[in-house]
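dude i think i finally got it to work??
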Amino acid sequence: MKNAPDGSGVIVDPDAKLEEELIIRPTSETIIWNSYKDWIQSYRDLPLLINQWANVVRWEMRTRLFLRTAEFLWQEGHTAHATAEEAIAETRQMLDVYAEFAEQWMALPVVKGVKTASERFAGALDTYCIEALMQDGKALQAGTSHFLGQNFAKAFDVKFADKDNKMEYVWATSWGVSTRLVGALVMAHSDDQGLVLPPRIAPLQVVIVPIYKGPEQKVQIDEKMKDLLPQLKKAGIRVKYDDSDNARPGWKFAEYELKGVPVRIAIGLRDLESGHCEVVRRDTREKTSVPMEGLAGYVKQLLETIQQSMYDKALAYREQHISRADTMEEFERLLDDKGGFILAHWDGTPATEEAIKEKTKATIRCIPLNNTPEEGKCILTGKPSKERVLFARAY
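look at this
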């Protein structure tokens, strides 16, 4: 596409026409609300809750793998309600859903908060978010939930007849997470050897690698696997017995370590004789000799231990990298020397918010929901402030 000669907009370049049309669109509000206009007539039609997975396209000048790509897959929700209270409750509920998924499944501690007016989703009255901290000290917005008020309903003339047969505009929300969570997972937990996956979301939780010389030893290990594998699977463990002969055990160890498989088990002829096997944790690389009798129960508990350990490690890192700054000089020093989140006073104006961003490349990630009121002075202007907000350099 290119600019029209008369300046009226854009025209399609016939030489650039694709065999298959690509329609570039952002999020689905326009599509959804055009449909809601036909679907909603009465309070009996409410609440209307739509959830979908879809690919969207953004005009990104500088892409970054997983975090900021031209096209990405995401989950998005759009809801319509009879009252503001219902819509706000839905907005907060989805924020809690996202936070629970991040913490309980991804082992990723997050801060729940509300965005400043400058950072809100266009058309929203309030944007709630979950903010996570990566291992390099930068923040990542991991999910958002928006209270849209009646803005989209008014824009698309979506009204409903209430119980008194009075016509009212509906109240709305939208919320979403994307493949950015994959990037969060990689950056929050991985190390120089590859991925480190939390057991609850790891596609493969356990890999068993046989160590043998010759087909006779292989047959003996295979026989033992006929007993062990069903026990592990019955315990709900996602397990693979990699007895392929196209790679040596050492190569397999490195490959599964790279893929982040939480637990690796090695079994050789000596292990069969001793009744024990070597169990290795991916997160700490700790090796333990474990009896094969009752192995399923041991591994089941180990996976839960790893899950909690990964969360605790990420939480400890975040807590060590939450600082308080009372002056601009201290603020800049912490950003450069330590990174992470910084709690500081801000006078509440968009102009100051933008000035701090221009000066330091740090943005207000959110105003935490559990904030404690505290009288203070803005780090830049010295004007009065009633609470600290959360700053960070971010992806």
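Confidence is low (pLDDT under 50) at residues 1-10.
im so relieved honestly
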